[in-house]
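Office hours follow-up: a student asked to see two folded examples consecutively, so here they are.
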Amino acid sequence: MRRPHRATPVLSAGSLLTTVLVTVWLLLTAGPATASPVSGFPLPVPPRVTLDDLLPTPITDDEFFARPADLDAYPPGTVLRERAVRMRALPAAVVPHTARQFLVRSTDSAGRPIPVTATLVLPDAPWPDGPRPVVVYNMAIDSLGTRCTPSYRVVHDAVDIDVPPMLPVLLARGWAVLVPDHEGPNMAYAAGRLAGHAVLDSIRGLRIVAPDLADSPLAMTGYSGGAIATGWAAQLQPTYAPDVQFTGAAAGGLPADLSLLRATMNGQLGSGLFLAATVGLAREYPQLLDLAVPLTAVLARTPLKDQCTIALAATGIAMVPVEVFTTVPDPFDDPRVRQVLDDNRLGGQIPQAPMYLYHGSSQVFLGDEFIPESGVLALQEQWCAGGANVAYVPVWGEHLTAAVAGAPGMLDWISERLAGVPAPQGCP
């Protein structure tokens, strides 16, 4: 008699997290020298986490992403590698285009040289008059795995999930689009200073790869995680890259102050991405690992450290707070954590380019449940006090729908800046 077929169980990211947590909890509660109730053998002491444990698995199936040697021999923005590509991932691939990818020397948060990759996409449709404008589109990468970075996804994946799908929208307007891999080679999610450097050095590389665009009007946009890169690139431009000039920069759903997310994401449905951002920061600031419990080392050896946005967000169902992984009861009060949060808080420098900020607001409808509007309002006030021109537009919706609701206004504002229309005064 034929036995009924048994379906192979599929372990989701959420169930994987739960399984690992329960297993490690059983090990830890047994103590370092207690005998196993089943076998009588002593249970092992979980190891301490190291930076090597926490770093993502390198890309091995595409040599373009391999780290070049002697990075410190080159100035920031030097193009060390380039290639022509055809985007495969939908929906951007439906727009007739040509594309080039390149690797530049950039700088991490501590001033060390790093390689950064980027993709430049040009629509096939001719531009009617003058140099074709360039929009730097900082995607909301919000991921920990190297294969989640945009330049890898657009040539290796069939679908590139981006909400809303801004790349084809920007290309349809006839603009050239530069997509920097702003989390860097170690996928340091939420590390703002590194992201700003990566964006600015990618623009420098663009001028080498496409000299006909060197004098094009330049604007920048990004939402959520992409807004971090946008805000930091605009803020750092006057000092890090005075040779780069923006006609304007737009950022939506901006986490201007990461410390505010403790109240809205930690231990809540947003905890998956909150914990991922904590991992991203620890990759860039390894002093945070001094606070990690052995449980962190176990999780660092699982596929969780290589996941993309959707899987990471799904783990928020477990609503695990960051305190589970720290040796202190309140890590947010630890001076090492406060220093990292301060180092990644926007507002310390003043952007020269006109800024356009938009955010899901309860004053309109619903409001952003993850990123407090108060952080954006405080940033506008701080930048305006320093002499910047910063417009703020509240829009309807929560975090995801506000990205859609705010897109038309953002596109119109960028279009006017690229056309040479001076930005109206946005400060109160």
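And the second, which I mentioned at the end of office hours:
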Amino acid sequence: MGRNTVLAAVCAVAVASIYAAQPALAGIGADLDVPAADLGWIVAAGQLGYLAGLALLVPLGDLRDRRRLIAGHLALTAAGAVVAAAATRLWVLLAGLAVAGLFAVVVQTTVAYAAASAAPGERGRTLGTVTSGVVLGILGARVAAGALATVWGWRSVYVVLAVLLVTLAGVVLRTLPPDPRPGRSSYRDALAGLGRLFRERLFVSRGVIAFFLFASFGTLWSGLTLPLSAAPWRLSAAQIGLFGLAGLVGALGAARAGRWADAGFARPVTLGALALLAVSWAAIGQAPWSLTLLAIGVVALDFAVQAVHVGNQHLLTTAHPGTTSSAIGGYMLFYSLGSALGATATTTAFAVAGWAGSSVLGAVFALCALAAALTGRGRPARRCRSAPGRPGRSRRSARRTTGGRAGSS
């Protein structure tokens, strides 16, 4: 198994531990006697743990051997999954899911490891491959967890996840090379470095793009059940889950975006993909009348989201080669907040104006991301990679050396 395949598998299984509860909520509620109004906390527990891990755990990757961190965090995520599988009360389940979410930020440590270990000219392609595992985990978890819960019950979902997580921890230790980190004075310094990123134009620009990008993504995937389970379709949960496969086709197709970023085309790819994202909502909005148009729109949306996401991470890890973990962790804070906004706003929009309201909302988020991309240029990143000892080198020469990526946004 190749290095990138291992890293992609780590991302897929770890992120699945956060999203696996969604298709099994009805079974969990019936088994633990949880009122329907409280089922949302089951999903929120993992998300809140994940948000805390982004700020508190991901910066450790700039201080410690990332290979050992990946293996250790996979094992601790498995421990949370075991607690969830054995839970007989709601608070125990929530505690297990929170722990699993907290250490599921191993995804970001893995992405940082991949970026740091890749050759400069292959960083984008590597990121495209590895982050495809994230999309596989997000979309595939809905299908796989739904099938497992139907056949063996919801607890089987977390048992299988725990086995996969422990197995991957062993594979990581056996197959990946060590990743010694340069000495830094303290964990406190790492957190301070994360805070300083929020004063950098490139970082904030890409973060704002990600915020609106994943708000649009969350608007679709958190709200799609509403029109499909209603008249005239009245689809089952399993049938609705199949649309995740359509999204997977689009997202995996965008892995090539990494190669485009390697070639220096991050900015035009970002702008084109965000325009496609906005247009995709015209097809997605037809969900109450045409499942074919909906499927086309889902493919386009997930292609656009993944293309922009890969480009964002490529630029940030290239601009911050010594602190890739902090850069990725901070960037993903925008991702999480945007996803949460989309998930909560889409249900409100649907209640007020139906799926047309949700579709307009998703398109507005996409246009906001496009506006952020048009106004943010991120010039400070270009200065970060000027070669020391060659102050007279021209800006054009610097661009040739780095493939023109530094100033792209």
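Two things to take away from it. The mean pLDDT is 84. The two ends are 34 Å apart (CA to CA).
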